[in-house]
Amino acid sequence: MNRYIDLDGTYNFRDMGGYLGHDNKKVRMSKLYRADSLSKLSNKDIKRLVELDINIIVDYRSEEERYNNEDVIIPGSKHYVLDPIANIAVFAGSGKGDLALENLDEELVSKFFQEENAKFVESERGQAVYRKLIDLALANQEGALVHHCSAGKDRTGYGAALILLLLGVSEVDVYHDYLMTNENLLNKPMALTDLDKEDQALMDAIKLFEGVKPEYLSSAINIINDKYAGPINYAINQLDLSESDIEQLRKMYLI
Questions:
Q1: pTM of whole model > 0.85?
Q2: Where are the domains of the chain?
Q3: Cα gap 107→15, rounded to integer Å
Q4: Domain at 14-253, CATH from 3.90.190.10, 3.50.50.60, 2.60.40.10, 3.30.710.10
């Protein structure tokens, strides 16, 4: 099944639907989307997103990331900024950060991403952000929702995984959806300046930060399973969702 949405201004825009969920029902297509930055959409892209009936846009990016890089306005849509304060994810999406580049290696970067995913699950801010995401999905009786960050892989990857898990999608399929980012990176344009390219430490760091690995997401899923006895209990006890909220989510997004 092809979930990829081919747009001029994105490389990681895709449909979250089609996976088998609770009670042998499938996640609805054309209702939930995940993406990278929407700041470089062409006029043709805008027309396509209007045709897709996108009416809710959730932007996880920080104020720094959005500066002079705001999402393109999609007619008929409402825009929400929900920043989980993910410093490492910011670095991965924008090529910026406070880390000492010369100290980076694959093991350290993996550790950073695992810690960030743990924060999405455990921090008050992370819980508030992803609870709001689910609230917006529950309230969206008409149209479709897209959530995105800069690269559409870390903050967005966790948000997509949480929704799919609550819809009863298997962890195997959740990881499959998460790792599709690595395939979509082949469509990513090189947007570095010549000066950037001459900075070998920066180039090496960017290579380390691009893409996703299963252990990044498993850091979050393992906490949800081991500490909170699964996504349903986590959603009820930590996100203050009710059983009826979860039933409604499934009613809306499973068919």
A1: yes
A2: 14-253
A3: 31
A4: 3.90.190.10
DSSP state of 71: P
C-beta neighbour count of 208 within 10 angstroms? 17
Sequence length of the chain is: 255
DSSP assignments along 97-151, one per residue: -SS-GGG--HHHHHHHHHHHHHHHHHSHHHHHHHHHHHHHHHH--SSEEEEE-SS
Instruction: Yes or no: say if 251 and 182 are a contact pair by the CB < 8 Å rule.
Output: no
Q: How far apart are CA 54 and CA 48, in angstroms?
A: 9
pLDDT digits (tens, 9 = 90+) for 87-107: 544 454 444 444 555 667 888
- C-alpha 196/C-alpha 202 separation (Å) is 7
Residue 229 identity: A
